[in-house]
Amino acid sequence: VEMWVMDNGGFCDDNYQSGSSDDELVDISEVTVDFSEDVPPLDRDYSAGKTPNNSPKLMDLLDDTVPGIGTYEDFNTIDWVREKSKDRDRHREIANKSKQSTVALLFSISDAFSGWLLMLLIGLMSGALAGGIDIAAHWMTDLKEGVCLNGFWFNHEHCCWASNETTFQERDKCPQWKSWAELMVGVSEGPGLYVVNYFMYVCWALLFAFLAVILVRAFAPYACGSGIPEIKTILSGFIIRGYLGKWTLIIKTITLVLAVSSGLSLGKEGPLVHVACCCANILCHFFTKYRRNEAKKREVLSAASAVGVSVAFGAPIGGVLFSLEEVSYYFPLKTLWRSFFAALVAAFTLRSINPFGNSRLVLFYVEFHTPWHLLELIPFVLLGIFGGLWGAFFIRANIAWCRLRKNTSLGHYPVLEVVVVTLLTALLAFPIEYTKMSSSELISELFNDCGLLDSSKLCGYTSNSGSTSGSVNATAANGLGARLAGPGLYTAMWQLALALVLKMVFTVVTFGMKVPSGLFIPSMAVGAIAGRLLGVCMEQLAIRHHERDIFRGWCSPGADCITPGLYAMVGAAACLGGVTRMTVSLVVIMFELTGGLEYIVPLMAAAMTSKWVADALGRESIYEAHIRLNGYPFLEAKEEFRHKTLATDVMRPRRGDPPVSVLTESGMTVEEVERLIADTTYSGFPVVISQQSPRLVGFVLRRDLVISLENARRHQEGVVSMSPILFTECDPPMSPSAPPAVKLRSILDLSPFTVTVHTAMEIVVDIFRKLGLRQCLVIQNGRLLGIITKKDILKHMAQMANRDPDSILFN
């Protein structure tokens, strides 16, 4: 009958203390974390324990005066049905009272408006934090290369904006911006300049990464990673106290800037979802109906996930679809509207801050106007295949590396791991232009379409009219020679190929380290590089063979044959889709990024091809793979259960096991119930009529039972170990000398979900998924036979899939 429980050594202490529910805490850090946040105190003094004449009173917990009743332990699953029932009762009470007085009517209106007010506050707070993170990360990234003399707080671009001494070819150089070599040794050219700048780049990268991992380790172990696997689990009904707390928010915001600025192969977009959810969780405490109801709080967290993507990509609609498609477990229509409003407010706030100074919400916003050709769908599909292959490879390689980290001594040295990976990344990144720049700048460069004013190596085209090649001369004569590849473009191509390999390797080992690390930007960078390489190849092929029938309609004098930046964008979408398995939300995010509706078909073709290829090689996305790696109790809605097993095959107790531990509705004493709780670790007990007649009456949670007994001993006069426990509606006859009874019917769930022994497990799994159950009782002709918990189902599904059933534990 084991459930998501806390193995406690006793319950009659001054406070209800708990250990870990699933053998161990989450393996996020070796430090001990206090998860007391949000747990209501249990040691208040209550004057309601006695009647006015000091006569003993039966404990009736129907009013919510006893703290802790109806709340959940850390690492437990919430009861969705009970939470929704509580919310309906609260609404019914408010509606009835609103008809009685004007004050109650105003309270009813404010209660209905509070959800929209909360969305407004989440959007404002998340947008402001995202703007600050963008500005700080941009400045600290440039700090690795130099400093502005006009003010150290200016980044490179802002420093040179006001300068009148910049040239067209060297627009990023101005007297006000000094590299570290110029400041420290006074050299402006030569090998000394390169060596000093190289050294300072590595030192700054190591400092930023070291500070990030130390802060995470010391103050908020839950601030590492992207946070999306854990948020998916929390939204499914699991409780991880502290994961969305104030310390996690503060440390994640600071260390996210440090991690991105260090040059590691990671992004800030995934962690921004975690940041937005932390904002939502903190703000929920100011609204009673969300603070006291875990199901309502999860509706707010679903909207906050949309806000995170909205500020990460400047894509409010894509954010709402991302929340719906990827992270949310329960997403009613009301949440859809509120998510849209919150995402809108967040995007507006970020636009008002204008972190990049270009009136755009992201650094790599681009606009394409060149139409694409039907036959280009072939290379777009090829990019989709590449994205699917990359996604499948990345998931397997990263999970293997993370498993190695968990199961070997590597996991005992998180600081050393981060420092070593940062050192290798910085040493290898600095010599190559496209790995030295930040990933967002790289994507912006790759998405960019070459114009007359571009001085990038990627735009290193030249006219080869002096060539002896007849086809090339014909090309030049047709006015297309200006798009022939020159030496600068060839240099950029081999550098991009090298950058592609480095990005792939470093992304595998970086994701999962003990620093905030997102996956969106590195995956997009890999795809953008591959797409740009293919785009340039296609462009040169079309130009050099424009007289062929297949290319004849593509090229016209004075116009571009092919847009390589479009290929980069499609490749970015394909690789991100291969890793995350997003489809609809991914396409919408990408076209919101580019502002080009005409490119939806290429994006859809690449995204679907990527998903098909990746699904053929493995069904799980990277987030689901990490959920399974960490043993989170998550029932994936996409995973089908096709095995012909019955409830009797999964329920406990099994044959040969001792009978199920139960309470009787009368006839048990306080001492007997306390002994049963002390001797077991179950998180709840079925209540039956009697041991001889095990007809099911209801189900009571361990936490509610413990708190009620503790409160009765403290505040109800005359309660002793021999006091009877009653779950009945009517009081049985008792002798005048008998100690007062403790009445606990109000904490009893009188309508627990039940199935028969012959119910197919396919149906049971569907019930657990769609209703969010914690447990289900198995009966036959009204007699209790056993119990099925969420963990039992997860273990059974793992066993049927030939996986280790014991992996469904927190480790």
UniProtKB/TrEMBL annotation:
Subcellular location: Endosome membrane
Residue ranges constituting the CBS domain according to the UniProt record: 658-710, 751-798
SMART domains: CBS (SM00116)
UniProt GO MF annotations: voltage-gated chloride channel activity
Membrane topology recorded in Swiss-Prot or TrEMBL: Multi-pass membrane protein
Pfam families for this protein: CBS, Voltage_CLC
Spans through the membrane: 102-124, 198-223, 244-266, 272-288, 300-324, 374-395, 415-434, 492-513, 519-538
Protein name per Swiss-Prot or TrEMBL: Chloride channel, voltage-sensitive 5b
Species this chain originates from: Cyprinus carpio
